[in-house]
Amino acid sequence: MEKKTEHNTRDTSSAMSTVATKPAVTTGGFMFNEFTYRGVDWLLNSALGVAFSYWTIRTHSGIEHFGKPVTNFFNKHLTTFSETGLSKQLNIFQSAESIKSGAYWGNVFSSIMVGGFATIPPIMALEANKKEISRSLDEMVYGKEKVANEPAFNAYYQSIGQESPKSFGIGLTTRLISLAPILGAMVAYPKPLTKYLYEPIASVTKFSAESIGIKPASLMQKRKGFEETDWDFIHTNIGTDFGLAFVYSYIHEYTYKWCSSLLDSKKGDIEKPHIKDKNHIAPQPFRVKDMTDEPIAMAVSEKPKPLGYRDEKPDSKIAQREHVAAAIKEAPSHAMGGAA
């Protein structure tokens, strides 16, 4: 009995360690992840952000409906913050010029942030089809036969079915969480970021565009009320968004996955994981059986009782009497006579 218990314990521990071991990510899985969070969450996010910020800062309708209200919001709150001890200790926003600059970059950041919200639904759609897309990419790299026959591929695809679902609400919340430190850096330290990040990237993108003949004349002239040309503004914003959004894409990726897993586990989904594979049978939780229930196994495997068998259970006396009566009825007549 002890040997059997020890064997079962060893098997259980082995099974638990197998479940806990996360399969290696395949090449297709890596490509999927980079396309989703660096392609969509960085490049597409940045492109949409630059387009939206152009509308809100360089067009009259955008300035009236978005730029002015947002700039006034930052002006008001940065002025209030400048009077606090923390602002004085950090030596930020201690002049009217720094507050004006902070409000401007706050407006730029808000424009970029709002424009990038459109990337959350595509990320959700990609995550919902992660298994199929990863498999297709692996088949393109290694071939269908190798992907179908090697257990490592199937183990990774099975693990995808165990991942927590990605919702729009969590995506939106984690986006705001991820953007918070970036907003703080943009507003508090615009000059060093402009010098060491935005302008170097802008010079590269501008040179690259002009080298292949992209130099629209309509964007090269200064417009009334603006200090720089539209061409310079676009590339400065490309440097801003593409530079900061690259860091953001990593923060958002990990917070999105972590928060989805955390909230999913609080709902009890750790015990009942999201399994997409129809052929997979989840282990059933142990349940203490009601002592009044009759075990199904006994009904199937129970052997016939000998004549005169007595069941000690008090709730089976009726069954005992019926069993004895049936045995007497079936007994040979001479045996009944002999008994008489």
What topology does this entry show?
Elements lengths: L1 H19 L6 H32 L1 H23 L2 H6 L5 H21 L3 H9 L1 H13 L1 H6 L1 H10 L7 H21 L1 H22 L18 H37 L29 H6 L15 H14 L2 H7 L1
Helix pairs in contact: 2-3, 2-5, 2-6, 2-7, 2-12, 3-5, 5-10, 7-9, 10-12, 11-12
How many helical elements?
A: 15
Helical amount among residues, as a percent range? Answer: over 70%
Please identify the structural class as seen in this structure: mainly alpha
The count of DSSP E runs of length 2 or more, i.e. the number of strands, is: 0
* Major pleated sheet: none
Strand content: under 5%
Succession of helices and strands = HHHHHHHHHHHHHHH
Report the radius of gyration as a whole number of Å: 35 Å
Task: Return the domain count.
Answer: 2
> Could you name the ranges where pLDDT drops below 50 across 5 or more consecutive residues?
1-20, 268-302
**Global morphology:** elongated
State the distance separating the first and last CA atoms: 49 Å
Give the overall average pLDDT: 78
Describe the structure.
With 340 residues, the protein is mostly helical. It has 2 domains: 24-266, no CATH class; 296-339, no CATH class. Helix content is 72%, strand content 0%. The chain contains 15 helices and no strands. The chain has helices at residues 2-20, 27-58, 60-82, 85-90, 96-116, 120-128, 130-142, 144-149, 151-160, 168-188, 190-211, 230-266, 296-301, 317-330, 333-339. The longest helix has 37 residues, at 230-266. The protein is elongated and about 115 Å long. Mean pLDDT is 78; it is low at 1-20 and 268-302.
